[in-house]
Design goal:
The structure is a homodimer of 586-residue chains. With 586 residues, chain A is of the alpha+beta class. Chain A has 3 domains: 93 residues, Beta Barrel (OB fold (Dihydrolipoamide Acetyltransferase, E2P)); 260 residues, Bira Bifunctional Protein, Domain 2 (BirA Bifunctional Protein, domain 2, 2-Layer Sandwich), CATH 3.30.930; 126 residues, GAD-like domain (Gyrase A, domain 2), CATH 3.30.1360.30. In chain A, 29% of the residues lie in helices and 24% in strands. Chain A has 17 helices and 23 strands. In chain A, the strands form 5 sheets. In chain A, strands 6-9-10-22-21-20-17-11 form an 8-stranded mixed beta sheet, with helices on both faces. A 5-stranded mixed β-barrel of chain A has the order 1-2-3-5-4. A 5-stranded antiparallel beta sheet of chain A has the order 12-13-16-14-15. In chain A, a hairpin with a 2-residue loop joins strand 20 and strand 21. In chain A, helix 4 packs across helix 6, helix 4 packs across helix 16 and helix 14 packs antiparallel against helix 15. Chain A is globular. The mean pLDDT of chain A is 94. Chains A and B meet through strand 1, helix 3, helix 4, strand 6 and strand 7 of A and strand 1, helix 3, helix 4, strand 6 and strand 7 of B.
């Protein structure tokens, strides 16, 4: 062992001890006859001191020779520090060096290993091994480690078994695009990497494993949006002999356990619940951020039929009340209008009404709405003097989605989205199906194994789009942490579902035959849930971005710029796989 | 919830309680006016009873309608059992059914869900979801779950952090063959699936993570030998600021913890250690089974130069003493001769000498060796009356390997290989390099990042094949559980190593440039170890075969016969990837 102590564990009670530490040189302060060095490892930072007359000249020279990020082993004696540093956990002491052993030198790093470092993402990613030295990044990965371990401890304590499912599976054209793996031993054939262990965990329920979980990598070959990764991690769970209530309670327990053990945060009472329909109506989102209110208000009754064509032609006129924003300047309001008109939001305009302190209103549609009409708006919006009413209109789905974005934007502007406040919310009763305009058929909103609600069975044949599913999501702070469903465990119902989704018998059999066969041999009622692990940890860490919580993330083109991957294969590798690539330009 | 209790938790103290259980029908015994059903779930087996006049006729009829593997929910009252079954944990009680709720019927399964089932492997694998219902298989996967959780708890307790490394990485022609993944977003380019996270864990040491572990899937596209899987699981570990001794102690601690917590087995004292050279000399194997002795005895001094050409021309004449086998019949001896002549072993013959009870010897080479000469053999072999000396000869490496097989075979025949006895052994000082006849160059015996022993540095330039490495394996019961090394952390030494291995500068840079660059920025001394997790759990379970410890294994052609994978891709998938396959027959 190169050390008796790490750089974070020495304290005043160690004064007088002979110790050996090892780590990286964080900083040096050389005053000529005295030199201080901060030595860093994963556990902390400790000050080394060398002074003329106190240490040998050789030691002093060796200390002076150390540059930033040099790796060094220091022997010495723990002494009391003259100017104590209460910000350092080892700040009461320092080590008087008696021997210096240089373990490895370092070039000058391309950026400094500091908490805040102002360099481009590309450079940080190329030198990710240096970026990973920074304390904020290490703290994020420590949190990730802690959350994964506590997840396992909790699930084990309630009888879940971790079972590893295979990574080399079979491609299913349904859903997102698969990454595939050519098989050398079966020329012309391919494995697929799993988008999730869905079918395997259902088979494990058929096999009587009762409670399964796995923290597992999943893969989706999608065009990467910001903060999407081609490989991502799930906490994947399934339970048998349960209904929806059992699942919600079990995983609410897990989330509470994780926040308590890893964030020292206790939730009061049960997580609130809301139906999908209500969430869409009130927040225009199936993952509303309920750290703040600002619920949607339907203005159809008070805003339509007043001769303002834009409203009259709209399916929905919807408002939010930005409390206390009545003083917004012309410039601020224009900026909001520009913001909603950006192509990412896509609104054609934004209408406002300020609630002045004198009880009057000032709106952008004064021509069409007199003070009385605007007072009506204020009344239904519960707006008071000093508030700002913001109104969008259009087709219901689109305008809700736009208003959701505006609401979140206002929440951020108004400082209502504290990353250290956590607001969980179960969303229930998702629709079973959604209509896909492009393919002209229904898609499963969750996935094809999700069961419809019993009370909606009659609608399957008449109004399939009205059928609600036993499907649920856990949202927190405007983010979807996870979701799941009670599955179909009946072969006939599963076959009917495939039919609804436009699968032919042959297609269903080719892709999911083994699962449907398994259902013939005593499948228990079952259901489950999967959490996006990267997203969960990022949310717990108070961050919007998952990338920092992944040790070696890929960029938006799916490249790892550090190892320079993907890359062309050697010709003999291609030959062994009986593969050729076509030049995409041809 | 479909149950108040699982099928394994009811006891005499529950008598009189109204309960609900759910599970699979294991067996039914129908005596007309009374019917018993054993209901099964993961937790156990419980007896349900229905009797005319005691339960309603409807319940009785419903019970009679239940077939094997039907899934059913039973309400009833816990009653004392008339004929208690001490073999069942719930054997003191039974449930008097008051309501039967059929949850799912089952076809007659293709084999019975019993502990022992005499059907072919192919059928079991096709219906793996039914095979997985059998208790011995469930017990194996439960052990696997337990071992993985205890591994994590232990490593966490000694400051290891689990860090997930990427699955979509870069292909390196060195070593075994990679599985590759075409990149749609980077046409003509490929990711590779990791054979191990080796370079990433070394980068994490450069990044200051100090102690890393991961239980992680790895992939090797090798021609499958029996009991090899294309995807397998490793406990992958790395530590900084350590020497070999620290690593051995840390992971000896892990193995002891796992056996104690998961097998209730305590090892006495430290694990024995042996150099690679000694292991090859004494056992002809770098993973000797030391549950029994039967060490090799070099007979060169007493067997050569006696006019027996076969011995005289051999580099090595080597014997083992099969204690107490002196009574082996002619037939048994012939069988042994045939056994060593099989192509898998490849010996040209086997010579024996029986130590008779009267002090005389009977050998297959009596013509060349008189009683005195044979007495010399017996003396060096420490053979006594009743023992059997078995002798092989030939080139040293080959004959050692053959004798290793024979020794293990005799150990098995003689009942010396009890799967519930565990004999760990550290093997140290592996050679750094091995000569590859085919390519005419050195290969790294462990991997190219392994450091040579300091005391052998001088040999690098003169006799590279004599250089020993800081490399070690943990063997147990004739199996390699894991291995590792202290790594090179110096860029120059790493470059020299690549040179020894026949890499050009360009090749080394193209494949491992990022690692060598990382070594320029303050790489600490580091080393690590990886355990084959499948193999570890199988050994702990007392089994030779890893396949049963994997929930969904592949067959020897790399196929999953249950899901029928790999399979051809749809043409549009191929097109999106800019790929075509070549017919291998062309």
């Amino acid at each position: 062992m190169y050390r008796t102590h790490n750089c974070g564990e020495l304290r005043a009670q160690n004064i007088g001890e002979k110790v050996t530490v090892a780590g990286w040189v964080q900083t040096t302060r050389n005053k000529g006859n005295i030199i201080w060095i901060d030595l860093r490892d994963r556990y902390g930072l400790i000050q080394i001191v060398g002074e003329t007359g106190v240490v040998t000249d050789q030691v002093l020279e060796e200390l002076k020779g150390l540059g930033r990020e040099y790796v060094v082993q220091i022997e010495g004696e723990v002494i009391e520090r003259y100017d104590k540093n209460p910000k350092m956990i080892t700040g009461d002491i320092e080590i008087k060096a008696t021997a210096v052993n240089l373990l490895n030198a370092s070039l000058v790093p391309p950026f400094e290993i500091e908490d805040d470092v102002n360099v481009g993402e590309e450079l940080k990613m190329k030198y990710r091994y240096l970026d990973l030295r920074r304390k904020p990044v290490q703290d994020k990965l420590k949190l990730r480690h802690r959350v994964s371990l506590e997840t396992r401890k909790y699930l084990d304590s309630v009888d879940f078994m971790e079972v590893e499912t295979p990574y080399l599976i079979k491609s299913t054209p349904e859903g997102a695009r698969d990454f595939v793996v050519p098989s050398r031993m079966n020329p012309g054939q391919f494995y697929a990497l799993p988008q999730s262990p869905q079918t395997f965990k259902q088979l494990l329920m058929v096999s009587g494993y009762d409670r399964y979980y796995q923290i597992v990598k999943c893969f989706r070959d999608e065009d990467l949006r910001a903060d999407r990764q081609p490989e991502f991690t799930q906490i994947d769970c399934e339970m048998a002999f349960v209904d929806q209530e059992d699942i919600l309670n079990t995983f609410e327990g897990l989330i509470k356990h994780l926040f308590k053990t890893c964030r020292n945060h206790e939730f009061e009472g049960d997580f609130p619940r809301m139906t999908y329909a209500e969430a869409m109506e009130k927040y225009g989102s199936d993952k509303p951020d309920i750290r703040f209110e600002m619920e949607f208000v339907n203005l159809n009754a008070v805003a339509k039929g007043k001769g303002f064509g834009v409203f009259d032609n709209a399916e929905l006129v919807v408002a939010i009340n930005a409390k206390g924003c009545g003083e917004y300047s012309r410039k601020q309001l224009d900026a909001l209008v520009d913001w909603v008109k950006r192509p990412q939001i896509g609104a054609t305009g934004l209408i406002y009404s300020k609630c002045n302190e004198d009880g009057s209103f000032k709106s952008s549609v004064d021509k069409f709405f007199d003070q009385e009409a605007l007072a009506q708006w204020a009344s239904v919006c519960k707006a008071e003097a000093g508030d700002l009413i913001l109104v969008l209109c259009g087709d219901t789905d689109k305008v809700r989605s736009q208003m959701n974005e505006l609401r979140l934007h206002m929440g951020t502007e108004m400082g209502l989205r504290d990353p250290n406040v956590f607001a969980p919310l179960w969303i229930l009763d998702f629709p079973l199906l959604e209509w896909d305009e492009e393919s002209g058929r229904f898609h499963a909103m969750h996935h094809p194994f999700t069961s419809p609600k019993k009370e909606d069975f009659d609608l399957i044949d008449t109004e399939p789009d009205k059928v609600r599913a036993n499907a649920y999501d856990l949202a927190m702070n405007g983010v979807e942490l996870g979701g799941g469903s009670i599955r179909i465990h009946n072969k006939q119902l599963q076959a009917r579902m495939f039919e609804l989704l436009g699968f032919s018998d042959e297609e269903a059999k080719a892709q999911f035959g083994f699962l449907m066969n398994a259902f013939e041999y005593g499948a228990p009622p079952h259901g489950g849930l999967a959490f996006g692990f990267d997203r969960l940890v990022a949310t717990m860490g108070g961050s919007d971005s998952i990338r920092d919580y992944i040790a070696f993330p890929k960029n938006n083109s799916g490249r790892d710029v550090m190892i320079d991957s993907p890359a062309p294969l050697a010709k003999d590798q291609m030959d062994e796989l009986f593969l050729t690539t076509i030049n995409p330009k041809e």
